[in-house]
Amino acid sequence: MRKWQYVPLAGAAAVMLLATACGAQNTQANGTNLVQPAAGTAAATAPSVVASTAGTTTQAETAGELAVKADAKLGSIVTDSAGRTLYRFDKDTPSPSASNCNGDCAVTWPPVPANDATASASLNPDLVGSVTRADGTKQLTLDGWPMYRFAKDTAPGDTNGQGVGGTWFASAPDGKKAGVSRPELGVLNSPTLGKVLQDKNGKTIYLFTKDTPWPMKTACDATCLQKWTPVAPVDVAAAVKSAGISPTALFTFNNPNGVKQEAFNCWPGYTFKGDTEAGQTNGQGVGGVWFAITQKITVDKGKTKPAATGTAGSSTSTTTTATSSASTSSSGTGGY
């Protein structure tokens, strides 16, 4: 449905060049067959049926409202409405979505039906989707990753499938692996905004169009900072590898509060306190002046904002020039 080297000396040189370019002062299971009625039939909305190896049939558990649970060891994980942990499989693909767990695998790891799945307030509904399996049934996906339950999880909250075979992991709220360290800079493949940048906690990174990229000045004052947090500096080499962006797109500067902050094509980066879980994009378009930062960044001394201009659930990601009237408008609350 939807997907992502660096020479240290070259990267270091690039950062030094950006110090001048940005105009700032320093750098820095077996026989299983899932069957659903054909669309348009009277039973089209009935639950999926699982045919077991013994020939008996049972109804597959539907997902219901997906929720986010705080696990003491794994952090935030996604569960179904019954509290069962949902998992992702490294041998699947998210872009395009494809499930590679069939036969014996699907007995141990039952695919989660997509027919009635909805997102709770803790999840970004844009990331909830489906993929058609080899048998024609619809399986739930989260940011493109097919979702499964684990047969050995017998009670709500069980996470016995975590790390099995080195390829099975509980799903984080953005479809990534829970309980696994994230890179300092990552990418969320949003269906509505395109590929946008995330910090080490999976929080979406935004820019503020009232800032000035050349020379660099931040317009996010004390009131603004109550809702928006400056992005901490990232390791350039690691960021280039994990996020697939040019090293020259990154620059660290000192903001007026004396805090080192990461910038992207000279635009300071922030996270939004209204995004409480990984994968949320609640800051997009706030006040008409806050926009998620795209992975595809044009390096031109800040002339082009690396901004996703889509509205969640309605559009796609693009870049806009510094003179774009759509992205420079503000609300009566100062865009905070």
UniProtKB/TrEMBL annotation:
Coiled-coil regions, chain positions: none
Give a Pfam family name: Lipoprotein_15
First and last residue of the signal peptide: 1-24
GO biological process, any: alkane catabolic process
**Keyword set includes Signal:** yes
Spans of biased composition, class Low complexity? 307-336
Q: Which keywords accompany this UniProt record? A: Signal
Give positions of region: Disordered: 302-336
Protein's name according to its UniProt entry? Lipoprotein
This protein's species is Actinacidiphila oryziradicis
